[in-house]
Write a structure and sequence with these properties.
The chain has 266 residues and is of the alpha/beta class. 47% of the residues lie in helices and 17% in strands. The longest helix has 29 residues. Bound molecules: NADP nicotinamide-adenine-dinucleotide phosphate (NAP). NADP nicotinamide-adenine-dinucleotide phosphate binds next to helix 1.
Length: 266
């Protein structure tokens, strides 16, 4: 087994649920100590107790990441406690949908706060210590929607595209700094975030565990970008070479899915 994560430290945001929780548990199983950030303390405590069951240390840091000062303070707590952050998984996020014709800019701002600015704040808080040590790996969890947007996800997609752009420049600016950057672009994942959404067979939800495993494999290989699952790559290639064909595929396969919230779909 690879020793990439053995006796290392990781900070994961959105660790109380879904992909973040799965990343936390798999990292602990591979010998990593894990600091956990989300708002729901009780859920973080449950994840922490499982991490301790694997014989690793866990730090529970209940934090609202839309509060920049609280975010900085949580990062400094990890640095003060463990002296370093080897892996930073910037994963917390929320899903916002609205057709553009009905878009309230306030909703867009809300999405930008959690899906973009909170990630920037987290990275800027952790980066100086990584640069000083010339070591560290930043992993940004974007979404396949940032490679090919699906209506009516504008508030979510716009913020995730901003995050992907930030990550792309971050990786280039950190060239030869000793700090690695990986951006993950998962397709549909079976987590509470999209529990209200049924999706077509071609974009079937994968488990959070499978998603986390693929992300960690990509991080071990120091990949710049991770697109998953494999069929998402096909849509991505269509988007690059023939965007209207990709538009057609989105419509034809109903990639927006069907909401079962009693509102009769999208
Ligand atoms: N599920 C998918 O299909 C999918 C696909 C591609 C990418 N993603 C991305 O993967 C990431 C994880 O999503 P998930 O699917 O695992 O969803 P999830 O199960 O709903 O988890 C979201 C996590 O973010 C945390 N969070 C939300 N707002 C927060 C805030 N203001 N401050 C601190 N923590 C906050 C939540 O914890 P609290 O509520 O306790 O704060 C939770 O731990 C997101 O960035 C999402 O965009 C998901």
């Amino acid at each position: 087994m690879s020793t990439t994560f053995l006796n290392k430290t990781a900070l994961i945001t959105g660790a109380s649920s879904g992909i973040g929780e799965a990343l936390a548990l798999q990292l602990a199983q591979r010998g990593c100590d894990v600091a956990l950030i989300a708002r729901t303390q009780a859920r973080l405590e449950q994840v922490a107790s499982q991490i301790k069951g694997f014989g690793r240390k866990a730090l529970v840091l209940p934090t609202d990441l839309t509060d920049a000062q609280a975010t900085r303070s949580a990062v400094h707590t990890v640095l003060d406690t463990w002296g370093r952050i080897d892996f930073l998984f910037s994963n917390a996020g929320q899903y916002y949908r609205s057709p553009i014709a009905k878009l309230a800019t306030e909703l867009l701002r809300q999405s930008m706060e959690i899906n973009f600015y909170s990630h920037v704040e987290l990275v800027l808080s952790a980066l100086p210590a990584m640069l000083a040590r010339r070591s560290g790996h930043i992993v940004l969890i974007s979404t396949m929607d940032a490679k090919k947007g699906i209506p009516p996800d504008t508030p979510y997609v716009a913020a995730k595209c901003a995050l992907s752009g930030f990550g792309d420049l971050l990786r280039q600016e950190l060239y030869r700094s000793g700090v690695e950057v990986t951006i993950a672009f998962p397709g549909r994942v079976d987590t509470p975030m999209i529990a209200h959404l049924s999706v077509p067979w071609i974009s079937a939800k994968i488990s959070a565990e499978r998603c986390a495993k693929a992300i960690l494999r990509g991080v071990e290989r120091r990949k710049a970008e991770i697109i998953l699952p494999p069929q998402a790559l096909l849509l991505y290639y269509f988007q690059v070479f023939a965007p209207r064909v990709a538009d057609f595929a989105v419509r034809f396969f109903h990639l927006e899915g069907w909401e079962h919230s009693g509102r009769g779909g999208l």
